[in-house]
Fold these 3 entries.
Entry 1:
Amino acid sequence: MQQSQIDTLKQIVGVDNVLTSVEDLYSYSYDATPGHAHMPDAVVKPANTNEVSQILKFANTNKIPVFTRGSGTNLCAGCVPTKGGIVLLMTRFNKIIDIDLENLVATAEPGVVVADLNTAVATHGLIYPPDPGTVATATLGGTVGNNAGGLRGLKYGVTKHYIMGLEVVLANGDIMNTGGKNVKDVSGYDMTKLFTGSEGTLCVITKIIVKLVPAPEASKAMMAIFSDLDDAGKAVSGIIAAKIIPATLEILDNSTIRTVEDYMKIGLPLDAQAILLIEVDGNPIVVAEEADKVVKVLKSNNASSVNMAKDSAERDSLWAARRAALPALAKLRPTTFVEDATVPRNKVPDFLRAVSAAAKKNNVTIGTFGHAGDGNMHPTIVCDLRDAEEMKRVKVAMDEMFKAAIALGGTLSGEHGIGLGKLPWMEEQHGPISMNVMQSIKRTLDPNLILNPGKLVGEC
Amino acid sequence: MSDEITVKDINAHDKELLTDIQDALANCMKCGNCMAVCPIYKEIGKENAVARGKLSLMEGVLAGKLPISEKFEEAMGMCLSCKACASNCPCGVPADELIVRGRQAVVKARGLGPIKKKVFALLKHRQLFDFSLRMAGLFGPLSFKKLPGKMGNIARFPMPGMDVKRVTAPMSATPLRSQYPETIKVDKPKMRVGFFTGCTINYMYTDVGQATLNVLKANNIEVVMPSLQHCCGTPVFYSGDVESAKLFAKHNLETFDKYNFDYIIASCGSCTEAFKIEYIHMFKDDPKMKALAEKLSKKTYEISEFLVDVAKFDKTKLGPVNATVTMHDPCHMVRGIKITKQPREILKAIPGLKFVEMGKPDRCCGSGGSFSMAHYDISRQVNDRKIADIGSTKADIVATSCGTCRMHIMDGLEQNKMDKETLHVIQILDRSYQAGKR
């Protein structure tokens, strides 16, 4: 970018809100995804929708790429400024505008941290359910952009189920509103859903209307250990078949169990093939009934041990293993890739076996844990980015893993997004026709290809 | 060879300064969890304000992509050393220590900043340091106005590097160690302890030192305050001047070793941490000094930890202190030496005292030792959040165990027009023992 262009940006947002020192640019060259980094030409921090509109209008006219960013915690290189240009930092959009208790909706700006929104609505006995692992750091805008999920996905769904309306700025600077507070709304194409999960490739989100739900009154947690992976798989399907939808239904595979035990020494059996962690929530009477039913299903599927938490302290100790899964794996090696390939619920055991096979064949360390109830797995590859030979093997293992998920009728990403990380397999999952449709949507809304170019649907 | 120094040469030189922490930096997986707890990031919102960003800058230097520049120095300086990032890191990356390494590299590449340079040069000279702080105590009243009823001052006229309205600690006319003999004897002592006073207690908060001595006396413990003790070295260590810090460490270790105490106590979290943890790290490459540091580390206790775990303080002599008290956990207590239960146990043992926990008692107060001198505005913003948490408890007294926390909280209460006392835990216990005598 030329100095005169930087000056124009400074005129729009003020001198202090355009960062151009090499140190600042370096600080916005990466996100939470290993192996992708590129320096932008400027980091611009707009304060309001009007400024965003002016920035995009200017960038569009001058064909300057724009990479929208919140906290930069995504796991798919979604906000790495791969083509230089502008990093549009949305963290100044940090206000919760309104909590509407009559309609059970909240209106917030995209820079609000998800946990802060939840703290604000909790005082009214409400929750905003999407709870990705980064809930304490990720911005609402980032989670909408990536259609983030979380631990409660099975019962409560993911971000797209809670976004009722948006204010966005299009590539040419036009300001557009979608949806609203209506519970039912079939007027026109569902642009809210299209923009949710568009990963900054179609627009810049500037305001978000979310649905809130009453906080569950009670919950009960259980843990079961299985010496046979298929039994664990059958238990998962069995719980759903018993017409119980737990809030969380988590699984840890054998290599994760061994890593966690080695790290925490909490007495997990090293030969266990799977651990399930289940939590039901809702009305206290229903919760008690459902918990008993879950225990029965677990036992009838040959769980070698079943524990139910009696109080919150016991609940915490049951959760300890699941909570330690990522930290324990991440501590093994310097570099950590957390993937989120997802398969239909009944294919979870098959997928876990495929991941183990890919790890063994390529001599790569992969531990898998994840949301068994919704089939959303987190194969976690730990390695060292500085070892080129190892990284070659990691790439092959990843390729085998993603292809296995697709072959089982699964998808590349359940909740993290595609970005650059999973782009190589997009055509494999969607085929040429779907790719062409998605790319033509991109070209229509962003003809100069300035918004997060090269991501999600690739080069257009 | 050309005489001209190129950018490449500078980068190559800077790179060498950080080579040994390459692996430690690589362990950061950039998840950004540190953003959730970093008090500075909360105020500034810039990537290089948080640990992930600072570690990345160091990686940039190591990759030869960035020089150790003024901006790099600025970024490394923007840290309260509160350790919240390290304790919230899923990968166990000791970001706080790595940031100190970044500062160390700055000192080597660019030298210390002008203010710190002067202060630390003075610090290195023990007698001169003692003299100038005594002078400040004698002539302090000329430049500072005492706040009525509190151990606090407001500047009478502008001081360089200091906000005019800021409340600071008074410099005592007579340092603590000059007010007492070196050894404070009791009849048939049950043990003999060495008291490492630290600078804030010796020169400013002598009231905390007096309370410490009174409480130990009430528990029939002989106290010695070795006259040759010097600053623990923490302020210079955290600024990256490790060589000076090692000089202090060596001096203190050798001084205290000579007395062969049963225990060594300090009434300041950071001083305790220096004796307990930092000195061992500092001498990791010097087996003889490391062994000495380890020997004394085992004997060292923070005062509340000592009274609860070792001396089993006498609860029969306690009198009532009718007040509502809340507690702020200093960073180097909660995340440094990991002491939070013992001070509460002391407070809860006092008759008449109502203890109320504030929201986020372990969040940094924003002082960061010398951080607040260089960045008072940010320091104040961080502190205002602490004051709001204190305010919602409706407590009469804020208890804490660190001089700089006490000073910064006092300032915050004054700026926010809240009439509350800020005391060290040991002062409240002393009050209780005094009340018990009546």
Note: The interface with chain A takes residues 23, 26-27, 29-33, 35-36, 45-48, 53, 56-57, 60, 65-66, 69, 71-72, 75, 90-92 of chain B (CB under 8 Å).
Entry 2:
Amino acid sequence: MLIEQISVFLENKSGRLADVAKILEDQKINIRALTIADTTDFGILRLIVDQPKKAEKILLESGFTVRTTDVIAVEISDEPGGIVIPLKILQEANVDIEYMYAFASKSNDKAFVILKVGDYERVIEALIRQNIKILNSQEVYQTEPGH
Amino acid sequence: MKYWNPTFECMSRDEMRNVQSERLVDTVKRIYHNVPFYRDKMQKKGLEPGDIKGIEDLSKLPFTNKQDLRDTYPYGMFAVPMREVVRIHASSGTTGRKTVVGYTRRDLDTWAEIMARTLTCAQADNHSFIQIAFGYGLFTGGFGVHYGAERIGASVIPISGGNTKRQVQIMKDFGTTVIACTPSYALYLAETMEEMGIDKSELQLKTGVFGAEPWTAKVRNEIEARLGIEAFDIYGLSEVIGPGVAAECSHKSGLHIQEDHFIPEIINPQTEEVLPMGEKGELVFSCITKEGLPLLRYRTHDISTLNDDPCACGRTTVRMNKVTGRTDDMLIIRGVNVFPSQVESVLLEFGEAAPHYKMIVDRVDNLDRLEIRIEMTQAMFSDEVKRIEDLERKMKKEIESVLGINAKVKLVEPKSIERTDGKAQRVIDKRTLE
């Protein structure tokens, strides 16, 4: 149920994100989702890619500080209020969200929400109980346009 | 008053040599019998006190290094029983181990005497109001100037460092005529005055004594113009006694060394060979009147030159030129001695190996700023901003507690600190000292 997210330490200076993107492109690694948490001095680039193991290895070899973290991906409807349902469930289950980000799926009227939480067991249980679909890694990594 | 103690300050060179010889012979005897560390050092060189018959034998004696003080921490090099020590000061040292210095009653009296000479050199007297903005505490700056100011009968304002607006207000209200602080703080005072809308014409300030960090002719001109005073350089280090080792007179052609208390030498820092008068090298001092901690041939690591030509002021003591640099990696930041190894010792606590780091020292708005860039490692990294910021804060706190000064800590990407021959350059000092 958990999927792998790649986090990369970046200084806030121009061109660094492009450097990462180029390295991944050269290895034919596709970025499925991307977000940056930034402060005035540094940023943490968080990536969902189709080949996380390979991405981690190549980024480490290129001299970046990299960490692989388990996150969960939740499917929601790509429509107004789509994100409200899972958020409400998590609120009622009283779980803390460390961070989250969302991206639209090209395949249909669905979108994905990536969640980093403290207690995955409780979160997964709460979501499943309310019939929220939690995506497996294949669904997240390999979803092709039109699939 | 022109001189505080003309007997010694204006003594002929021959007489001074006699005074120094006599005092050196006596000091060597005392040290040999009271400090096992020195006795061992001398015996290893096959020396007995009787071999030192005068100043001509000085170069036979072993050198003393800061490391010797650390190895015998805290009191191992004191030459008197602790019951005779009435004061203890300390300077910052690497890995939290400070350099401890002790004074007997007579040492404090000597300190007052040489600081009285220093302040007299700077045209202060019993009519002066001396505001001492050097820190009071384990640091020797505040107390040293204080004793001298009392000795000459000035009205002493012992305000210590910090609280700059209050400093300016008191300077104005109390009619301060002499200010004592670090040169960078003097400029900061000038700036604060301008911000507060106080003009130098509203002050009674006439002169200032500045030391504890290197400064340039350009900074002197700026201090003099902005505060409307004459600025004098003072020199000292706690291991020798503190401020008062040497002082500038109004001719500003080097600092007069209080030679009847401290014998200066210039050596080649690599070969340790004594260099002739006028050549550039490392300053070395031998204390010949101190009781508590009479160090012999103490290596300062300060680079300077000596000059024994008579000075136009009438003093005959040897003068040292402004210190132009260091022979080791010690930095002086806001008057505090800082070594890169201190930062390294802190960083070692954050992983198995210390991450690469670089210290960048700059002077912004006339105040020294220290930034420490630290390369992110796999062990330190997290996908959460909060954790990295916590780590940054923790590093900053520990570095500041070891160094004793504020620092900015910035985490940078791996391999972003340039290396030469595989070795990272630890320090970049951007402060201009031309």
Note: The longest helix of chain B spans residues 13-34.
Entry 3:
Amino acid sequence: MPGKPPQPPPSEPPGSEAGGSDAISDGERLGPLTIERHRKADGRALILYSRADATAR
Amino acid sequence: MSERRVSELRGEEVVYAVQRQERTFLPARDHCPLDATRPGGPATEIPFPAFEIAVFDNRFPSFEAPDGAAEVIVYTDDHDASFGTLTAARAEALMWVWRHRYAELGARADIDYVFIFENRGVEVGVTLHHPHGQIYGYPFLPPIPLAELLADERRGGCAPCALLARELAERERIVHENDAAVVYVPYAARWAYEAHVVMRAHRPSLLDCEPAELSALASALQRLVRGYDALFQRPFPYVMAVHQAPTTGLHEGHLHVEFYPPLRTAEKLKYLAGSEQGAGTFISDTLPEESAATLREAIARGA
């Protein structure tokens, strides 16, 4: 797990984040879902879950 | 990094997460950090132009490895949605995500209790309106889950199972039910419109549920939340708390979801004042049976 995330630059507006991420896994299955794991630019974990049949949006 | 101290007088842990003082507070609509990152728009927590459900480490954590976890779970990229307005398929998917996070966080040696919750509305201190919940991985067993385990001991068996049996026998506080879940205002509710969504079968955690039960749980939760919104014809604030087994290896508990709404009328809030804060005893202005009748009608209207 990542350590404490770095503080944003002082000029960054509230709530904004450094963009971008690295994919670290793709296509795990969980019941009806697929899982994509990413690492955000500041090192924090990000997981995206999608319906495998893509009908849940 | 947070600091934990034990209050000797209360016999409870207090967590000092001073980094949270700087967390994002009710940002402008076009700077929501939980939106997708749209082309040409500001960067957000989710650097993709669209997503279904996203989970990420909280930027302002109350707990973090190696002493717990704090995650944010975003239900949708639709900023103006709510748990109640999600499609049935999305709500069901959310149950699978909860289950996945319970399994992964609960497997960590530093986490004793996985707590999934949602704060909805400024009345309960929400700082971002985008539909989302949170997950805390506590490095200890918090007092309320502990109290529930102690209730099991006191009663000599699963307390939620016994309380559910009582509600099913008396029926006057039940507001909704389906094949797998029962929704009722508890006999000793603290809040005017408090409601518990309880699995019919003894299921210690989401991991013990069949897929059909996850679907039914999602349905029951949505019916309740839509009923809440119909109650006073306004978005209804609440704290939603998912209670399930600790992850210490002690697989005891009974999966249920508790809702604590602070409204006692359309305009009046229940405040935690002298008796509640100073003596620990809730004083309620309403009877659970009367609230249940009102809520039952609202759920029918909100369907």
Note: Chain B touches chain A through 41 residues (CB under 8 Å).
